[in-house]
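can u do me a favor
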């Protein structure tokens, strides 16, 4: 917490800072995160709707509402983390951290975007979709950002809840029900996030330590982090098989999921036995592969829907 004197100095420094640009207001919504989550949202929608049940207007409201919800949550994350962001190289140039956007403006900006997102999902899609989206927002802003991130080594896992909601939003936008496939899509994204972020946390451990964020490698060390990475990688691959079992996706998806999942497990296993002097390079490989894995998996889901839809149309 900042002391009163520091607050006064901080408020005075805003007068000396350069004014925010439109780009700053875009950046605090974390557009990269929005893009990746919208891909997951679209995938959930397309898997549920297929070619026959595709409704462009509902999809538009689903994607736009989800985008606003995520943008609002990210803006509020920038608002709340303005005291620790300057201590980390990855976040120190954010507009709120540097003072180009005043905290109160970032707060109301985030609230406005969140309200618009919830309204779009509620009015343009259905109440259940809006409720799931808002639950993801609450998990990210209140449970993760304001609570677990600074207090518990379980912060990454708790943060994974909000990151796993987008494909469920897409599915429920079509079906208006939370069934086994909806939870399967949720699980895939949920299990993917610990291996992804643990690899990043090991590479950025010194920054997290300096900021006082109790990431797993900071508190428990790299060995414990790599053990959890291996466990969650196995759970991820197992979870990825559920959509085939529920018949939401077909054989093309199953083969691709195994072709991606088995090498991921092998990579995580090898990382577990990587010598200390090679850990950073191995962590980078894990991080890059996690991005490739998720992108290709989402693409494969969409391709599988296309293949099955065209097959039904032709035959």
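np, heres the sequence
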């Amino acid at each position: 917490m900042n002391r009163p004197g520091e607050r006064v100095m901080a408020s005075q420094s805003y007068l000396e800072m350069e004014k925010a640009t439109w780009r700053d207001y875009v950046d605090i919504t974390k557009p990269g995160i929005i893009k990746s989550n919208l891909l997951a949202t679209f995938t959930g929608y397309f898997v549920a709707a297929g070619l026959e049940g595709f409704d462009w207007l509902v999809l538009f409201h689903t994607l736009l509402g989800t985008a606003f919800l995520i943008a609002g949550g990210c803006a509020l994350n920038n608002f709340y983390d303005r005291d620790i962001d300057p201590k980390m190289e990855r976040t120190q140039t954010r507009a709120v951290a540097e003072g180009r956007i005043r905290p109160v403006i970032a707060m109301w900006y985030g609230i406005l975007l969140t309200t618009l997102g919830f309204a779009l999902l509620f009015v343009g899609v259905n109440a259940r979709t809006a409720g799931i989206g808002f639950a993801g927002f609450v998990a990210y802003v209140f449970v993760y950002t304001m609570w677990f991130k600074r207090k518990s080594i379980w912060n990454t896992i708790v943060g994974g809840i909000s990151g796993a909601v987008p494909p469920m939003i897409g599915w429920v936008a079509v079906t208006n029900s939370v069934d086994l496939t909806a939870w399967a899509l949720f699980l895939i994204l949920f299990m993917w996030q610990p291996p992804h972020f643990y690899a990043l946390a090991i590479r950025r451990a010194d920054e997290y330590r300096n900021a006082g964020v109790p990431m797993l490698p900071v508190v428990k060390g790299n060995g414990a982090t790599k053990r959890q990475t291996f466990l969650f990688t196995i759970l991820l691959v197992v979870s990825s098989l559920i959509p085939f079992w529920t018949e939401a996706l077909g054989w093309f998806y199953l083969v691709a999921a195994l072709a991606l999942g088995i090498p991921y497990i092998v990579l995580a296993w090898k990382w577990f036995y990587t010598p200390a002097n090679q850990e950073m390079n191995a962590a980078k490989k894990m991080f890059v592969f996690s991005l490739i894995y998720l992108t290709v998996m989402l693409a494969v889901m969409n391709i599988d829907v296309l293949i099955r839809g065209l097959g039904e149309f032709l035959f």
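The chain has 16 helices and no strands. hope that helps!!
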